[in-house]
UniProtKB/TrEMBL annotation:
Molecular function terms from GO: iron ion binding; iron-sulfur cluster binding
GO terms for biological process, alphabetical: iron-sulfur cluster assembly
Identification of the protein by name: NifU-like protein
Domain NIF system FeS cluster assembly NifU N-terminal: 7-127
Gene3D superfamilies: 3.90.1010.10
Region (Disordered): 17-40
Classification via CDD domains: IscU_like (cd06664)
Gene name as annotated: nifU
Native organism: Urinicoccus massiliensis
Length: 144
């Protein structure tokens, strides 16, 4: 099956019905993310316990790409150690900007790999990376 077709189906499905778009009861981390170039806005909510991201959800509005990317990211990081979540964010952003190309690293991204071809659509890159930068920022704030 054509990768672009898989990507299109995944984005459409996730944007129509983002199962992770809701308030997260008992969240321990909340971080807003905003893309001023197109108006996408998310608020990422995480429940972290003993260094593990037990749950993730978001609220907000935006284009299909930002909503799908955020929902898929929530699924991807759930159950991971905080450090693994940070590494996944780095790998996703690297996949989009072309600095991460190793198959082993990309494989760790799971369904989020469907966004790999977004790098060919420069106007949409910021939409796809918004949740991943927001995740990264969540833990950078904590490290301060």
């Amino acid at each position: 099956m054509d990768l672009s077709k898989i990507y299109t189906e995944l984005v459409l499905e996730e944007s129509r019905n983002p199962k992770n778009r809701h308030e997260l009861e008992g969240s321990t981390h909340t971080e807003p993310g905003h893309n001023p170039s197109c108006g996408d806005e998310i608020t990422l909510q995480l429940k972290v316990k003993d260094g593990i991201i037990e749950d993730a959800a978001f609220t907000g509005k935006g284009c299909a790409i930002s909503q799908a990317s955020t929902s898929i990211m929530c699924d991807t990081i759930r159950g991971k150690k905080v450090e693994e979540g940070q590494e996944l964010a780095k790998n996703f952003i690297g996949m989009i900007n072309g600095s991460v190309t190793a198959r082993e690293e990309l494989k760790k991204l799971g369904d989020a790999r469907a966004f790999e071809s977004i790098k060919n659509l420069p106007a949409r890159v910021k939409c796809a990376v918004l949740p991943w930068y927001t995740l990264d920022q969540t833990f950078k704030e904590e490290e301060k």
